[in-house]
Give the backbone structure.
Amino acid sequence: MWAELLPVGRSSASGGYRRYAWSGADADCRTWFQEQAGARGLAHEVDRNGNQWAWLGDPAAGNAVVTGSHLDSVPDGGAFDGPLGVVSAFAALDELRGRGARFTRPLGIVNFGDEEGARFGLACVGSRLTAGALTVEQAHRLTDGDGITLPRAMELAGYDPDTLGADPERLARIGAFVELHVEQGRALDLSGDRIGIASAIWPHGRWRFDFRGEANHAGTTRLADRHDPMLSYAETVLAARREAELAGAVATFGKIGVEPNGVNAIPSLVRGWLDSRAADQASLDTVVTGIEQAARAYAAAHGVDLDIVRESFTPVVEFDHALRDELARILGTRTELKVPVLGTGAGHDAGILSDRIPTAMLFVRNPTGVSHSPAEYAAEDDCLAGVNALADVLEGLACT
Ligand code: GLV
Ligand code: MN
Ligand code: MN
């Protein structure tokens, strides 16, 4: 499976993946998914929000067990974030068939669309729409950097955007969703364990800061006469770091847009996107409020206008305790491995769906902790331990 998937959407320049929602690379990933489903005799379907499903057994029977993840990527993402969960899902099914397992519940394998939000700015669009956490009106307003709206992008990719919307009937048929994911930190590396179970996801969100100043000549405009939004932006980046340190949180400006983006022109607009996350809501509020206040003060000092828009937000997720304990129990009886329970600052479709259905996650060790980078890595032995653990869990949940 990896041999076919690894070349898809890989930049030869960076070695990273550029698999953006509804792009050509995304289409190739979707074709791959459909082929994997077909090769295993699974029924393939695309739901009203563009998520892909492969079914063993009839989902209409209800109480289905679903596993899977996403195939899209951040700009220059790694090979594992998302695809490891989908590849492992198919591999776990192969393992279970090899074991002669008999399924008593329908099994679904899912590829959620647009998990990273790299193109339209909002993460987990496919699962948010399905859960009703994103309205159709909001989805219609999502626009990429080229001015293409989400519905138009879907249409160009050959999908019908008129079907977008909450899908409670689909969710009602699912009894449990278990997402396997590469760990995006070093907790497992530090504890010396191959796999872990997720406890919670930090609350997190994205905020857009638009600093509007005055374009002018870089050579002739006196420093005192400038309204340079780059200065207030730069000071805000430093303030974000300070506020995050004070609160034990994280805050990142990882994306920026500059107009007119000329070497010899003072910018008229600097647009920066803040991603901030903290262990609890109060700390996150403190960090973001602190950054906003600092940004307004810096903007005022430079005679620059500032608009701040919250583009997305995901509250803290505490994974279903009963399902989490069930995973621990199943793994406790079937593997010699110690399986710690750990939290994460990364967002996932399992987190979005946790409001509606019981969800759980398995993490696979990442020896460097690096993620959202071409250097992201997981060792083959650990990936295989992940497949076995997922197979054990699916067997425990869905087989006699
Ligand atoms: C998704 O990977 C996120 O946490 O941003
Ligand atoms: Mn990611
Ligand atoms: Mn992911």
The mean pLDDT is 98. DSSP finds 13 helices and 15 strands in the chain. The pocket of manganese (II) ion (ligand 3) is lined by residues 70, 81-82, 115, 181, 348 (CB under 6 Å). Residues 281-301 form the longest helix (21 residues).
